[in-house]
């Protein structure tokens, strides 16, 4: 069993940033990474500061991993299966035959985007014609036609948001009726969003580029970009086992030091309620790591 000052669960932007900080604080730290960081799904990020031409998500990940390696922080490839808080306030975690004991834990396990069901979804993301985050790359939709696909009126907010950039926006549904209330209807009208009530039956990449949205009645719509507003699955199961407070969809609620409602359990990145951005995740990781370092110092005083 590894005995640590902090166990970091998740090896994406948040987890690896926290590892760098804790290494520089000279703390015994280890990262356990399940290999599912959302960075791997980003073809090119243009809003990550310092890279004028953009940077691939995998390149960000590789740079962070290399920096962690400089400090000899182990990064173990595994999925933590259980997490327990001991009577003395420390934590024990397990993954198969691997066991860790730590005085604190940072959860940085993120979320998983709910993908639309069509065969070429990965290639469409790579080509930039299927996207998930208009905050990240709405600028790239400037002057282009956009289709937003959600459940019922679930994509309403995203459609209104991306209309600031796009030349035209159409809101589609996967089946549930789009039934906006008067305020929502007025918002869509101000944003000049066209609501398409016939349900989506298929989605494919167009040969000439862009995406083709086929409706149940056979009608087809061609757009340059599709935004999937289908939500995310939050990887907060370990925190739920310990009774950590969360939102209705499983995002963790934290204090100003990124600590959850469970003493000694911290969280950073997309798993935390708030804005899902790489830079936000890294800032939260820095806050959590510093709080843990100060906490450990206080125990020694």
Automatic annotation (TrEMBL):
InterPro entries: FAD/NAD-bd_sf, FAD/NAD-binding_dom, Ferredoxin-NADP_redctase_2
Gene3D superfamilies: FAD/NAD(P)-binding domain (3.50.50.60)
Domain of life: Bacteria
Keyword Ribonucleoprotein: no
Domain (FAD/NAD(P)-binding) ranges: 5-285
Keywords carried by this UniProt record: Flavoprotein, Oxidoreductase
UniProt protein name: NAD(P)/FAD-dependent oxidoreductase
Organism placement in taxonomy: Bacteria, Pseudomonadati, Pseudomonadota, Betaproteobacteria, Burkholderiales
